[in-house]
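Let's do one together. I've listed all components of the complex below, 843 residues spread over two lines.
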Amino acid sequence: MAPISRRHLLAAGGGALGSAALAACGSPVNLPSSLEEVTPRPGRPNRGGVLHFGLSTDPANLDPHVTTGAASDLLRQLTYNALLQYDGDGEIIGDLAAEFGWADDTTYEVKLRPGVRFHDGSRLTTKDVAFSFRRMMDEKTAATTGPLLDLVEEVEAADATRVVFHLKQADSTIPFVLANPTANIVSQRWIESGADPKTQVMGTGPFRFVERIPGVSTTYERFDEYFEPDLPYLNAMVFQPMSDDYARVTALRTATVDMIDYVPATHVDVISENPRLRFASDRSFGFGFVGFVTSKPPFDDVRVRKAIALAINRPSVLETALLGHGQPIDGALMPPAFARYSGSLDNTMDHDPEQARFLLKKAGQEGLTLPVVTTSTYSVIARPAQAMLPGIREAGVDVRLTQQEWLTFRASVEARSYPVHSWGTAPKFGDPASLSDFLGSTGTFTANTDFKDERLDQLLAEGRRTRDRALRDEIYRDVEQRALELVPMTWTVRRQQGEAHYDYVKGYRHPPKGSWTGVTLRRIWMDKK
Amino acid sequence: MRRFLLTRLAQAVLQLFAVGTIVFLLVRLIPGDPARAALGEGATEEQVAQTRETMHLNDSFVSQFFGFWGRLFQGDLGTSLLSSRPVMQDLPDRLGNSLELVLVSLIIAVTLGVLLGRVAATRADKPADHALVAGSIFGISLPVFVVGTLLLMVFAFLVPILPPQRFTTPWQDPVAHLQILILPVVTLTAASCAVITRMTRAAMLETLSADYVRTARSKGLAEQRVIKDHALRTALLPVASATTVELTTLIGSTVLVETIFGWPGVSSLLMSAVGQRDYPVIQAVVLAVAAVVILVNLVGDLVVRALDPRAEEA
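Okay, and this is what the predicted structure of the assembly comes out as:
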């Protein structure tokens, strides 16, 4: 073998460098430019165009029955349908259901729309619906809606168009559950063929899945055989994950994308003042809360919990953390949009550092050192946590905030590593029955506080059984009243939350109540050439 | 040379094994559960437990470790726990996008840095030298995220001559690709170019006062030839070593640059995987980046040996 000369080595090195540079160009999916064209239709929504959407997260799991957050639900609702859905006003309407309602206290009936087809061309049947709910109720699926179906005895495909839900006992939450963004209907044949619904998509929705490139884009194109005439108006939608708040807003302001979700509070004014942008939001769903580990001292003493709750200066938190874009929650968690009793509990938890000091003294916790944990990953959670510290210090508490990355924070909260955690979320649906998640002994958020109260469990069960509106208001007012007395967690602020888009994007509505849903994305059209 | 190559390749294999093992252990030591990430915040304990089972996270540690290396030896980098996509489906493109940024930045930084270093050294203590030294200190001092954000603000908003665009490959639209390449490359190049300028200047100042350069001048050689063939060539040796270090620094800087400019490189894949504790993706990306760094160092050593015959003799 000939020796390797220096000249050969340099030539080979140069060649390798050049080859690497040439090979160095990955290719995300590129739609034909013809799809971007919009066809004007006077008097009707224009057809065509591609909507580019800057999404706050990159949903890795596309399973129609498992949510990883509101952003993943936006995607899911474009490719799948549930039996029910919310309209732009937040009222429940039919989705795959043409008719729906209670047959008696424990029987709920749904009649399917005719002519619905899956993306593979097969027809939707009532057997698919029954199968979908069986899949949601199967623990192996770990479906988001699964625990909400605990009172369902059986889902029966009664005939070719009718599906009947037989309940173990009355459950007023069923319509909300059927309208949940993860209560989607799948094809039994498709799932049983061995398809992986985490990576593949095959629903009845207005868009069909083209491709997902992790961290780069998820692309959908129009499904021409969608059951609603004329929908969808767009040719395609491209979702680009932009987890950084500033990057997402910049992408919108520079027209890299047409629309974004999760407008951060710090940018609401910038976007609202831009004449070309529209901000569609609500002040009902997203909220912050502080949870206490009630099984260990000092928070096994309700006086200490109440002292911290009274020490938080909620109006100041709202101004400092969210620049005033929201509302302080000094009473009921449920907002007036979906609880008529809400206003009657206002001002129950006003900022009162003197009373807080008094309670701490009575509990023998003067000069308490308080470790609090929150997450640095989401500004909507971190900022209120930072902003509540001065108020708590005013009550003589030495509060120390630890900020952790999201999953580390979740692990800390589950392990009860800190006596107090500051979090932010939204109710599963716009009804006081969703209080169970936070106050019921089996609630997913209650679990982190070790809190259990028999009276609250009884009230929550009673509220779930009752369909009478006035009686429900009374029950859930009692629930919230008791929660304000026992303080397993204390609510801080309700944030203004929404999506922003250019003025040429038409047809989108952000429901003010009902559910935090982006289902009206199905009706979007572009008013531009 | 052949023995050198074989030794370095054997070392590279050992280094990769060490990196793979450390990453395998580290990702499992950090708190956070991939099953939680896959299910969202409203999942119950039972649902999380069920998903852990499905993801084989309850398998014994030893079984997971040998499974990882066993698959790797068969060329299988694993499958994402969350998306169920084989890692090989995404990694090559993403690594390619990052390498494009890094290599283009490095080529510009080296070319410009050597040129400016030479200018500074040949005009030592003159205004041009002072300006270049001050400029290079400024370039080194500015963090990548400051340069990137400033460039974005100026050229996207104030003087919108390079507004952010959707990512396009050179095969789809070469002109658009060049446009989106400019700001991230300038961001990455700034600090590296400053380092190489200073390195070249310092090395050339030393060689310009060396005896063999004085001899060359006294023999009547043209000044440009003395600089190019005698002073610069010798001065390039430390620059070549520094370039390999700069390349690894550039790879690290892409994490921020890709985030600022929305560049679909390997860093965003890694960041997303870390955020979701997607163990196979983290392991594969770190191994791939480690392999690139090891390869770069090997190439760097070979270049030094090619430039300096004494290294080969040694």
